[in-house]
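TEACHING EXERCISE
Course module: macromolecular assemblies
Task: Read the component lines below, then compare them to the predicted structure of the full complex.
Student: A.B.
Group: 4
Components provided:
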Amino acid sequence: MTDKLINKNDLSKLINDGDTLLVGGFGLSGTPFTLIDVLATLGKKNLTVVSNNLGEKDKGLGILLHKGCLKKAIGSYFTSNRDAVYEWSKGNLEIELVPQGTLAERIRCGGAGIAGFYTKTAAGTKLAEGKEEREFDGETHVFERAIKGDVSLIKAWKADTLGNLIYDHTGRNFNPVMATASKIVIAEVDEIVEVGELSPYEITTPHVYVDYLVLSDYKKIGGKYVVPGS
Amino acid sequence: MTDKLINKNDLSKLINDGDTLLVGGFGLSGTPFTLIDVLATLGKKNLTVVSNNLGEKDKGLGILLHKGCLKKAIGSYFTSNRDAVYEWSKGNLEIELVPQGTLAERIRCGGAGIAGFYTKTAAGTKLAEGKEEREFDGETHVFERAIKGDVSLIKAWKADTLGNLIYDHTGRNFNPVMATASKIVIAEVDEIVEVGELSPYEITTPHVYVDYLVLSDYKKIGGKYVVPGS
Amino acid sequence: MLSQEARIKIAKRVAEELSDGDIVNLGVGIPTLIPDYLGDKKVHLQSENGLLGMGPTPDEKDINMDLISASKHPISMEPGASLFDSSDSFVMIRGGHIDVAVMGALQVDQYGEIANWAIPGKNILGVGGAMDLVAGAKKIIIASMHQAKDGTPKLVEKLTFPTSGNGRANILVTEHAVFKFSDQGTELVEQLSDLSLEQLKEITGAPFTYQGALV
Amino acid sequence: MLSQEARIKIAKRVAEELSDGDIVNLGVGIPTLIPDYLGDKKVHLQSENGLLGMGPTPDEKDINMDLISASKHPISMEPGASLFDSSDSFVMIRGGHIDVAVMGALQVDQYGEIANWAIPGKNILGVGGAMDLVAGAKKIIIASMHQAKDGTPKLVEKLTFPTSGNGRANILVTEHAVFKFSDQGTELVEQLSDLSLEQLKEITGAPFTYQGALV
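Instructor-supplied answer key:
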């Protein structure tokens, strides 16, 4: 039906040791659970993950952490996963803490051909230490570099067969910017529809950004994602 | 029906001599014709207009030029209006020429609290003369500052009574970024609908950005905007 | 006063500071209680994970875990709500389009500088959108218990916890008082408990004025 | 050869360079003729004013002047088309997501550097999206008559017109030939007219190689 649709197990050919992965989701919403499940079985090492948070304990990206696949995590909020805090305190995980808006903008720049930008956010704080600061209009700004990934793992609601994507409510979050900022973009979706079924006004991620589609193993029951087979 | 709706003649109280105006539109699509018509009657002086182009001869922003309201124009393409070229050559109009993508991004930054950014676009060209250049990843980038306006004059298709906006096809163009980047934002719209009639997925400019709504005098007949009364 | 009672008192008082039509971002903790005390006032709640027009917790049957708040709880949408991605959400926040951000704090200094993300000596692993809001919101209201759990005051002369940025709080509402901040320092504008001025001074870590005079 | 005939010949030859599924941005002039010569090939046309999936000129009754191309002509949408604003459009262009940009040029140098926006001594008042495309497109094809109207060659050793940026063209297609550019210079890869190599050299302003040897 679409040449972008691949089997989830093809992930093994697309991700390499040492890759930087941009992974969508805020909390557990808009998170590519199936792709993360598969990735956790592949035994990849030294991955850097860019994601708002590292899931929760043994949920979402928490699984990768548990399996020892991660070298570094870049995100805004790791406190929701005690394991992340623990591994960091043991020196097993590098963490780069970035304000949430700066994180979103850095990824957007990565996809937009913009090398970096100046923001007031975090100026004068510990998170600006070691970064260039500069005055504009009498206020201190911090220089932030773009973030690019090797592979983006994102989660959408529906794709059409061309690869156009729409997202379910706030499941959108970081997914659209991450779709622009990696060499390879893999979208886990709940459903694939025919071209023309998504309105040109609704399409949030145009197909140009999407390389591969994987159907999600998770079904939503009573509004909550249910682990396959459970 | 909505306290954001004003009479077009209220424009006189909102725009001052010397203001910087961000004006939506690409060619004559997504252009706030009614607002420009009213503005042309107000006798304002020394306005700076930021817009992709200056309309066409005596159309759109071309009218303001003709009336001698403009001190300066910032945009990407003025060649479509011979009058602009003529007034510039006579020293009556300052022009700042900006690549189209850089223009859109500078305005977005103005609305996003970002002071400036580095882009590869225009590096090494005449348009980068006098601007800071810097190497990132082995390539030369140009530093570009944000653009902010005093008043944005934009054109949308439908508003709801809260001020949420949707745009007609490619009439969107610069309007959404301009909606974020001025102290006062006035949207000319074809139609105002009840809250709830626009889908949360369709709304392109959330109401937070819109201060005032003005109903358009222009009706589209056979797909073309027709001058009122003609 | 029981803690929950105090928290509700703070939420009610902050609600009075909000105006019809305000675009408001509510942080975790006490701020999340505010919507219950708005009465007829209609404010527009922004959630930094990508929604303007956040509505109340839905009935169990209407829960969709892809429609959640920044605190990751299921929510609903008000009529006129709109959805956007994280980068657009922070255009709204960083760009100065949020009328009021209500947030908790670990400390606030006498000029309104905020520390609300990290405690020295503890792991610094979460910041979320706090610094973006501090940098971008037009008005910042701190909604906080007057003292930390260990009894130390939240309002201090000089921050000892790491700052959240150069943005300043405008107002601090605690269970005992409402303070306003300016370049001149802290002003007590309203007492909310039966503590005497002397008693209030006792449990406050920064000098403040009241009716023009230093307390 | 009549000018329009030559233009069509160029458009046809450029069409051969495009592949099924390519994301393509077409500049003004000759590039706008290309869609007519794609045959069964299905490419996705991007229009920098905010559309991916541009379709052909609509019937008179379906014209909507808010659905136009970057050349400001009425267009239609292909199934699967999407709409976006100018900033998102240039995320696509500047960010390297356009497979092929086909554009005209005033001059191209022997390494593919492009001059396509300004003539010295004339008013410099329009640039549009040209520099963004030069900086961002993965592949750039120049579709141009071999010589300017005054007979001067378009392919030159060194630009005398202002450069459009550091991005380089990959291919130049004229009515006489197809050239490829690399750091080594220009290579003639195909002749499209019955000019001899000597005659071609005559009307070309830069050295080029053919089958490994300098012509």
